[in-house]
Amino acid sequence: MAENDIFHQYVAKIYHEHCGERVVSFEFQGKRYWLKQVEKLTGAMRLLKPNSTAALNKEIDVLNTLGHLGAPVPAVVEVGDGYMVVEDAGDTINHLLHHTNQALWQPILNDASTALAKLHNMQLAHGRPALRDISWQAGEVKFIDFEANQQNDSIISQQIRDLLVFIHSLYRYMEPNNRVICQAIKCYRLAGGENIWQKAKQFLAAWQWLYYFAKPFRYTGGKDLKPVYWVLWHFRQAPLTLPN
Ligand SMILES: Nc1ncnc2c1ncn2[C@@H]1O[C@H](COP(=O)(O)OP(=O)(O)O)[C@@H](O)[C@H]1O
Ligand SMILES: [Mg+2]
Question: What's the whole-model pTM score?
Answer without folding.
Answer: 0.93
